[in-house]
Amino acid sequence: MHDLLTSLQGLPPLLIYVIAAIIVAGETAVIFGLLVPGEATLLLVGFLAYAGTLRLAPALLVMILAAVIGDTLAFRAGRRYGPRARAGRWGARVGHQRWGRAEAMLGRLGGRGVLTARWVAFARTLVPRLAGAAGMPYRRFAPWNLAGVVTWVGGSVLAGNLAGESYETVSRLLGRATGAVLVLVAALVAVVLAGRWLGRNPDPARALVSRAAGLRPVRWLSGRYGVLFFLLAMYVGPTWTLLINLVGGLLLLFVAGFAIAWVFEAVVRHSGLAAVDGAIAGWFADRRTPGAVDVTLAVVSALRGPFLIALVAVVAAVLAWRNRPWRADLLGVVGTVGAFVPLVVLAVVVELTGPGVGGPGGRDAGPFPTQNAVVAASLCTLAWLLSRGARWPVAVAAWTGAAAGVVGIVGARLYLGLSSASGSATAVLLGVAWTALFVVAWATRDRAVGEASAEPERSAVPAET
């Protein structure tokens, strides 16, 4: 690495500008730009500005201009070839409904999605094309894209400039962080898909058994011993069948919880976030005062997981009694009177994953701060219960309060030194994703129920003559 930097410092500055601009623009302008190291190039430009080979202001301007040109070319390519690809053989295989949902999603996210994509490898190559293909006006695309380019290019170049001789370390950490973000995005997509599957299959154990019944060995057993299975089902009865379904569904929730916890812990562990734990802990330690510590410790001790789980149970029972009856399936239980059950499952999962609790206020050890995970999930569940079916001011207030509560309690635990920054990030991600699983499931269930109830009404309307 040292030899490479020495060789680059001997090149003419104009040649370095041209090569770096081609790499940065090519990352989005051409589809094989997925393989181009954009962040490493910008960090290198920042380091060369630190070393005096380049000037910082012109380097920033050239890199921003190159990134904007690359994104504009990608946007134009999507606008020109997107409809042709949609009408082609592969576009027909995707289906008109999926194309419609993709356009609706891009319409909802709009410029925010364009800005965010700039910070995610692979996404910054594909999103400009998707925006062009979806028909997003360039006047809407351009300002959000410029904001993303300025922040991404400026942050990366300045990071390389401030790193100085530590360029190699910063480049390695940023590369690890990019990979971690990709895995995290994939994990969140998997959580959403799992939630949609749960919404369509509110009794997951029964759904999996039905799928298994279609396998050849099971069909053979059913054909040979079908009478015995029928007599066994008659003996068990509907009540025990319901209980067996609920227990089987809870076991599946435990498995899902362990899977999500393992993925999120691995993402944060390999992201390099733990490198800042010491600096953040020191910053909080320098600002502790005896009076503030006592007050903060009292608040953290009061707003612990068991108290919040009990609060969720009370609120869920009141809302279930007032608003809607619960259905006799797992999703019906955990979405109404049993909304506290997923929180108990989460608490058990994070305890078994490795952390222990001890010391004043519950000092967490291991990959997951237990209290942070349960607090995040509990507050999000409360916001979901209070906002479901409510008017938008109530929903906004509920979710704003949940976000403020999570930030406040996690910040308080960091202030007291009860949790690390990387562990807190892992725990909050786990709690939010765990709640999102059930929020998506209930939204899918409600949509399916609404469509089913609307279908008879449409069929009952007499056709016009």
From TrEMBL:
Domain called VTT: residue spans: 36-161
Leader sequence segment: none
A Gene Ontology term for the protein's cellular component: plasma membrane
Sorted UniProt keywords: Cell membrane, Membrane, Transmembrane, Transmembrane helix
Compartment list: Cell membrane
InterPro entries reported in the protein's UniProt record: DedA-like, VTT_dom
Main subcellular location of this protein, as a coarse class: membrane
Keyword Transcription: no
Topology in the lipid bilayer: Multi-pass membrane protein
Family (UniProt): Belongs to the DedA family.
Official protein name in the record: Undecaprenyl-diphosphatase
